[in-house]
């Protein structure tokens, strides 16, 4: 395999993502032959990079369009982008957001990424004339649609720059209207907006992600002289911190933003006890304008 030339731009990008020094970044990129994920792992193993420093890069302006059914059985989030915040606040752009939501609702299960990006599809037909009218490039970069699997709640933060959708299971008849449940939905959606968790449950963390974390912890302690059984207990303890981290981590394990003495799981369990029904978050989505990935 040919050796990749490591440029100053690559070094700067890795430094921005990890906070490590310039030489450490260059050495890690050289060792990883230009692979950023591998270089980040190398830096973490050497204790030179923080786990959660890498954040999505702001790519553009725009707003998160949102709608939720009156019975909360379904909901949609869509990131609608433009080049300037000025255009994002115009009536024409607001109308575009509504048209996008209407098209997604009509398409239903067919509304996937390929459908969204189809140059001859319904979204393109809304975008093309408006681009000509307003003189800015516009896209609908991603969408999330939940339907038919539980109670769907939403929260829009920073005037439409962050949109959260959360789905609850175990919501029996009569619970939806109760104040305790409405408070819980609002609180959990705000938690997701602020804490930016990656997973709804520990079981959702892929095995390869866990193994990668464990390998990093082992590498950090390989010269500690501690026996293997002690090291494994330390590693399990460090995984507990991984589950709790903000951003990233597992939603129920995070500290509650309302009461840091409680975990989100404890908040949900307490609400379930008050409601007389064990409710749980089954899935969630958090879209931030200009951030790649969910």
Summed up:
The chain is built from 11 helices and 6 strands. It is an alpha+beta fold.
Tell me the name of the CATH class of the domain at 61-199 and 274-288.
Answer: Alpha Beta
Question: Can you tell me the CATH topology of the domain at 61-199 and 274-288?
Answer: Tetrahydropterin Synthase, Chain A
Q: Distance N terminus to C terminus?
A: 33 Å
- Percent of sequence in beta strands: 15-25%
Shape field: flat
For the biggest β-sheet, the strand order reads 1-2-3
Going by helix content, strand content and strand pairing, the class is alpha+beta
Largest sheet: 3 strands, antiparallel
CATH homologous superfamily assignment of the domain at 61-199 and 274-288: Elongation factor Ts, dimerisation domain
Mean pLDDT: 89
CATH architecture classification name of the domain at 61-199 and 274-288? 2-Layer Sandwich
Oligomeric state of this protein: single chain
Sequence stretches where pLDDT stays below 50 over 5 or more residues: 50-59
Query: How many β-strand stretches?
Result: 6
Percent helix, as a range, is 40-55%
Number of helices: 11
Radius of gyration: 22 Å
Name the helix and strand elements from N-terminus to C-terminus, one letter apiece.
HHHEEHHHHEEEHHHHE
């Amino acid at each position: 395999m040919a050796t990749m030339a490591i440029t100053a731009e690559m070094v700067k990008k890795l430094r921005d993502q990890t906070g490590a020094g310039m030489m450490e970044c260059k050495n890690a990129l050289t060792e990883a032959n230009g692979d950023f994920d591998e270089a980040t792992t190398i830096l973490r193993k050497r204790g030179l990079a923080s786990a959660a420093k890498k954040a999505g890069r702001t790519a553009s302006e725009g707003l998160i369009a949102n709608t939720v059914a009156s019975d909360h059985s379904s909901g949609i989030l869509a990131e609608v982008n433009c080049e300037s915040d000025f255009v994002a606040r115009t009536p024409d752009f607001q109308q575009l957001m509504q048209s996008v939501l209407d098209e997604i609702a009509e398409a239903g299960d067919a509304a996937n990424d390929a459908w969204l990006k189809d140059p001859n599809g319904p979204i393109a037909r809304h975008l093309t004339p408006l681009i000509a009218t307003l003189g800015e490039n516009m896209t609908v970069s991603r969408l999330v649609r939940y339907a038919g699997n539980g109670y769907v709640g939403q929260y829009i933060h920073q005037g439409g720059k962050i949109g959260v959708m959360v789905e609850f299971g175990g919501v029996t008849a009569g619970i939806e209207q109760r104040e305790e449940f409405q408070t819980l939905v609002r609180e959990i959606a705000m938690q997701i907006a602020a804490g930016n968790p990656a997973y709804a449950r520990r079981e959702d963390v892929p095995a390869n992600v866990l193994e990668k974390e464990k390998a990093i912890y082992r590498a950090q302690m390989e010269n500690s002289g501690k026996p293997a059984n002690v090291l494994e207990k330390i590693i399990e303890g460090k995984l507990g911190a991984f589950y709790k981290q903000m951003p990233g981590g597992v939603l129920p394990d995070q500290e509650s933003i309302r009461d840091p003495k409680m975990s989100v799981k404890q908040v949900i369990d307490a609400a379930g006890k008050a409601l007389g029904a064990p409710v749980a978050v089954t899935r969630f989505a958090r879209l931030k304008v200009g951030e790649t990935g969910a």
